[in-house]
Write a structure and sequence with these properties.
The chain is an alpha+beta fold. It has a domain of 84 residues: Rifampin ADP-ribosyltransferase domain (ADP-ribosylation fold), CATH 3.20.170. It contains 21 helices and 5 strands. It is flat and about 75 Å long.
């Protein structure tokens, strides 16, 4: 029996045990043949493969021995890869069979047809959300789908850069987020009620003078990552924001004495003030100092076993480097 099987780019099974396949080699299941437990799955028809065709490699296969049918799939005890289908062959198959496939009861098959760019004039009105999303990703029917009742479809439209002047006011936050990702309407979205949208605005480098004072620490941290307002964030109430300031290499002389150890670790990673941090009260900070290769003669005797372990490892590494040189 002939059929089709989808493998990843390295010719490994997409599901199951990730088995490696080779073209032309015959594979036989070991032990008692028990359906999917130790058999090889395949599909009789290409559309039934139902994998991400665009990112998979599709092979024509030959199945021998005992074969079991499971819905639209088959499992065989013996299989071999005959040849790999080209992208052109796959596309041609969907082209020739589109009139039948767009009427399939299986929504995943209709999505596959849309992925290949066929039947879009029909599928744009499909009852299934995922199918309409796939149509939107093809850039088709956006003037219709921009008003779709499903937010995921409208988000797909926004990611195509269409209807942003409408979708910037969408009732769904994830749709507005997609608009922000397009860099549109930032002057509006900078005041959005959802913190993750304001965060996206900050990542776009917009409205930093406003977001500098945002109530949400995650937004402020994003602003700090842009290198903006570091002199203000140096005194921020949130340790993660202050850590970001340290990661930017700013205010290290102050942050070396920060009350939160995660900030002091960030300072140590900048190789700043190691002569002070080698005596830090936090073992996590001292361990970071050891990772920087500083104060090893002190830290190999540290009270914390993890600090001693890192210090000794770094000391051995340093000795081996000297020997090689």
């Amino acid at each position: 029996m002939r059929g089709y099987k989808a493998l990843d780019q390295d010719m490994r099974a997409v599901r199951g045990n990730g088995m490696q396949f080779e073209l032309g080699k015959i594979y036989v299941s070991e032990g008692e043949f028990l359906s999917c437990l130790n058999g090889f799955s395949f599909c009789k028809n290409l559309e039934s493969v139902c994998y991400d065709i665009e990112n998979s490699r599709i092979f024509e296969i030959k199945a021998d021995g005992e074969i079991i049918k499971l819905d639209d799939k088959y499992v065989t005890e013996k299989i071999s890869l005959v040849r790999e289908l080209t992208k052109e062959e796959i596309k041609d198959y969907f082209n020739k069979n589109q009139n039948k496939l767009v009427k399939s009861r299986d929504s995943s098959i209709r999505s596959l047809v849309a992925e290949q760019g066929y039947g879009l004039d029909v599928l744009v009105h499909d009852i299934d959300t995922d199918v309409r999303m796939t149509v939107a990703k093809q850039g088709y029917g956006l003037d219709i789908l921009v008003h779709d009742k499903n937010a995921n479809v409208r988000r797909a439209v926004a990611r195509q850069g269409y209807g942003l002047d409408i979708l910037v006011h969408d009732e769904n936050a994830h749709v507005r987020w997609a608009v922000a990702e397009q860099g549109y309407g930032l002057d509006i979205l900078v005041y959005d009620e959802k913190f993750f949208i304001r965060t996206e605005v900050a990542e776009q480098g917009y409205g930093l003078d406003v977001l500098l004072h945002d109530e949400d620490w995650f937004v402020r941290q994003t602003v700090a990552r842009q290198g903006y307002g570091l002199d203000i964030f140096l005194q921020d109430e949130n340790a993660y924001v202050r850590r970001t300031v340290a990661e930017r290499g700013y205010g290290l002389d102050t942050l070396i004495y920060d009350e939160d150890y995660i900030v002091r670790i960030a300072v140590a990673k900048q190789c700043h003030g190691l002569d002070i941090l080698v005596h830090d009260k936090s073992s996590c900070v001292r361990k970071e100092v050891a990772k920087q290769g500083y104060g090893l003669d002190i830290l190999i005797y540290d009270e914390d076993p993890n600090v001693r372990k890192v210090a000794k490892m770094m000391a051995r590494h340093r000795s081996s480097v000297r020997i090689v040189q």
